[in-house]
Model the fold of this input.
Amino acid sequence: MATKTPRTFQARIESLEHREVLSTVALGHHVLALRGNGTGAVASVQNLPGGGFQTVTNLDGRANALGHFGGQVLSTFAGNGSTTNDSAVLVAQNGDQLNLFYSGGYRAPRGHSTRAQGTFHFTVTGGTGRFASATGGGTLVATIDTNSGASTFRINGRVSQ
Done:
């Protein structure tokens, strides 16, 4: 009968990949999910030369990175009324501001509907307070009633601060 020799455990560390730069965010920066929704109410409309127009919309919403927030959107619509360039300032209850820029277009309402919906890709362009050097981006989906100017929106993205 053969004798068995006991096996001993030998721990080894083996590299699975080589990296020159670690895949982490710079120290002191935090990446937050930005998810929320809210409503908008047009506060003013100004006609522009060439058939376009500009609106200022007051916002009220809630997002996980901001809590309850207010703010405004300045929208510049082309003469066709469906394409827009927007800058938004979202203001948290403590006064910190998050600045966004987005552009895109609304799909025309169908049939007798007065609701137009648009999907926009936004870029975070800084802010104040904890968002002073913020970056990031994501998607914003907005629905607007073309008669009243009332709108709803959902925002989904990331903010690095």
